Amino acid sequence: MTRPLRLSALALAATLALPLAARADGLGLPQLPTVQPADAFGFASGEKGLNFGIPSGGGPTIGFSYLLSSRAALEVNLGLGFTLTSPSDFAFSIELGYRAYLGRVGDRLYPFFQPGFFLGRSGGVESIAFEGGIGVEYFLLDHFTVAGATGVAFNVGNLGGSAAVVRIATGTTALYANFYF
Questions:
Q1: What is the pLDDT of residue 34?
Q2: How far apart are CA 90 and CA 88, in angstroms?
């Protein structure tokens, strides 16, 4: 079969399958979970949250969320670290993010996309990063969630040093506990 003929056959098959797909509910076929619109959220504009994060690399973080709407939140996460043995060190990080909820799966699971900006200092070296991550947030109780996220970052390290180090890396996977009020 030639390529144009194969494409025509595929287009015809898709056209014939559309009415069947539209009536799939009536055929008793198993249905996949659907993503409901974000308007169905329990989140409310102006709601605030306190979160505690445990990244797989680096130290734990504490953060604050402010919901701009039922679909979006601003996030600020802070991390601190102290090394008390010689050589002693102080590390800190701050991450600013915008969390866009993509919908709701079932009653309690909310997938999200979160771009962000990171600034940190560790071992006397400063770094910045532009990040993009995906994750899910699950409501265990009305005002308590657990979340997990991972992503990709464009990182510029050794700022102020003799030569900056630029890299693209997967973001640190993290787990969070969130309290909303």
A1: 52
A2: 7
134 with 76, same domain: the answer is: yes
Percent of the chain surpassing pLDDT 70: 74
Residue where the block lists tokens 């969630």: 145
The rounded distance, in Å, linking the Cα atoms of 63 and 150 is: 17
pLDDT digits (tens, 9 = 90+) for 41-58: 567 789 999 999 987 666
Cβ partners under 8 Å of residue 125, min gap 6: 157, 158, 159, 161
Q: What average pLDDT score do residues 74-86 get?
A: 84
Please tell me whether residues 157 and 74 are part of one structural domain.
Answer: yes
The CATH number linked to 98 is 2.40.160.20
In terms of residue numbers, what domain contains 24? 3-31
The pLDDT-based confidence of 7 (bands split at 50, 70, 90) is very low
Sign of the torsion formed by the C-alpha atoms of 67, 71, 72 and 75: positive
What CA–CA distance (Å, rounded) separates 85 from 83? 6
Domain count, the chain: 2
Q: Tell whether 89 and 156 lie within a shared domain.
A: yes
